[in-house]
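Researcher: Please translate sequence to C-alpha cells.
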Amino acid sequence: MVDKKKNTWYAKMKRTLCSVLPIAKNRKGKCINCGECCRLPIQCPFLKFKSDGKSYCSIYLIRPLNCRKYPRTKSECITNDKCGFRFD
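Model: Translation complete:
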C-alpha cells in the first residue's frame, strides 16, 4: 500500500529533480514489473498491461531518469510492499 502522505505531486517533483543524483549503493533487487511506481501520484499513460496482468512500460528504452532510478534511495521508496528493490 502506497503511503498517501508521501504520494504527492511535490514528492514526484522532488524525485524528478533528484533523479540526476546517483542511486544509493545499498539498493538491491530488480524491477518485478509490479507497476506501482508508474502510479505515483497518478497512473502513467505509458503503463500498459499484458494478458497475464504483468505491467510494462511502452517507452521503456526512452523512459525518464526518475523512472529508471526509482527508488533511488530508501526514503524515496514508497512502494515497499510490492517493489522488487530493497535497501540494506
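Researcher: Any highlights?
Model: The first helix runs from residue 9 to 18.
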